[in-house]
Amino acid sequence: MVGRGFSAYERELRTLLEGDPSSVRSYSRSLAPTERAEFEQIIDEPFLVVRGAGSLGFDLVAMRWSLSFPIEVKASSEPVIHFTAASGRANAQLAAHRAAIAKVGLSVLYAYRRIGMRTAEAWKIYRGSDANGGGVLGLVCRGLPPVSTTREGNGVLRWEEGLDLSRFLARARSLLGPRRAGT
User: Total structural domains in the chain?
Assistant: First the structure.
């Protein structure tokens, strides 16, 4: 299942990145107690998240200090999302994303929401392009697994290959450093 009730998952990720206290605390219940406090720091140091629009646009764009990145949100109850499903639209979208961000030195991130996850973290993060960029974004992306590619060159998201959202946010936070007063 991909796309059914999809906007709810996009909103869920948005509220997490924006540091909505009830959403963050609800999500953090699936984390180990040692990871929970680190994840909940997003409440005090949130991202500004805007929703994208358009048929080949990005779903969300998250920004904080010197870090911004477009995000494409995918959701499925299956452990693998093949980009050739739905007439290959996701493959065309991946190619368009890669072309668009290559011009400006950004990287597109893919967020995969595993539907039905109750005992483990439900979001995984992947990079949709090369990690050749500089700055904080380049450092963050070098630690991310890429969107996999089949022998035929088609994109694939494999659940087990992704980086947990909590680990991604901890990495980004460590690279950004503490927030300074007045910034």
Answer: 1
125-137 exposure pattern, b = at least 16 Cβ within 10 A, e = fewer:
bbbbbeeebeebb
Angle at which helix 6-17 crosses helix 21-28, to 10 degrees, equals 100
* First and final C-alpha spacing in the chain: 42
Residue 4's contacts (CB-CB under 8 Å, 6 or more residues apart) are none
Distance CA 115, CA 75 (A): 7
* Residue pLDDT, tens place only, 50-104: 987 665 478 999 998 888 889 999 999 999 999 887 677 888 888 888 888 777 8
pLDDT digits (tens, 9 = 90+) for 137-181: 788 888 899 999 899 888 999 999 999 999 999 988 888 776 654
* 1 belongs to a structural domain: no
Angle at 106 between CA 172 and CA 130, to 5 degrees: 90
pTM, rounded to two decimals: 0.88
In a domain, residue 44? The reply is yes
CA-based radius of gyration for the chain: 16
Domain of 153: which CATH number? 3.40.1350.10
Torsion over CA: 158, 156, 68, 122 (sign): negative
